Amino acid sequence: MNKKRAYWLSQIFGWLFYAMFMILGVYVVSSNFHPVMALPILIEAAFFFTITHVYRLLSKKWGWLQLPVARLMPKMIASIVLMSIPVYFIRVTVSYFSGTYTASLLSATNIVGNIIGNFIVLFIWTSLYYAYHYFERYNLSLKYEAAMNRMELARLKSQLNPHFIFNALNSIRALVDEDPDRSKRAINHLSNILRSSLTADRQELIPFNDEIETVRDYLAMETIRFEERLQTTIEMAPRTGKVLIPPLMLQTLVENGIKHGISKLKEGGKLSINAYLEKEHLVVEVRNTGHLKEKQLNGMGYGIKNTEQRLNIIYQNKASFSIKNENKNTVVTLLRLPKNFKLTRNESISN
Predict the structure, then answer these.
(1) Which of 1, 67, 103, 227 could staple 71 via S-S, CB 3.0–4.6 A?
(2) For the chain, what are the domain ranges?
(3) Would you give the DSSP letter of residue 293?
């Protein structure tokens, strides 16, 4: 059902229900009810119908639907007061011509009481009307934000793959003339990584086991290049393998540790990965030999920034990431992700 049809159905049946409710009330309290007594109420409901529709048109024309609540409320209250007064006198006029008029209708108490009653009815109508539009606008803003997140994540993914491929090809290039057999093995590892990368490009989250396999291929390739200068260990606690994580995120952190830490040391160093569950989170620690200076953090390329941005987009405030010096010879990167996190259909940010 489109919005226009929904509005007209709500208007028609809403004010009909109001008229029937008021007529029923008169029937219950009146000792000698006559059908003609329903006429003023029906005409009053018709006037409510008309005046609220005009109010809707003017509200849209004047841009009140876009106003914040603090600015809208005074305008809304003043409008309701102005609408409440003529509704009552319409009812008095109809009562006069239909023969149901009594002098008490023009008593101060009756006038004030009926105008307050009209005010309450119109206040309920306008509140529902604006609440619907504010809710709709909120939903649109969420959809817009989700669309922006999809575009941003696509941009980050497009950065990630060329960045990795560039470094991988440099590793292979260093082996081609020096050791053709090792370069072939490196190409096989790269092929596995690219296969995983192509699959991961179509997924927001993948099992941690799959990510570890990609990391193993990457480390095997780098070990061929660095030989004894690179020592690696991977430790995974039980049940960590099934936790879903963003694809190529751990690989990016491992690559960062080698490129900005171990590769800069003449004697090389060690890189270790330790994954375990802590309450409701998967915790992944990546340690590499090296020392991080404060000014280096801003110059480490978009690997770190990429990780932070992806975490913010996917997990909002449900994940954390940090990189710091554990001691003078070791840098530790800590990734903490919710272990039971799953993207719903509405949260999906895939390409």
Answers:
(1) 67
(2) 3-106, 148-338
(3) -
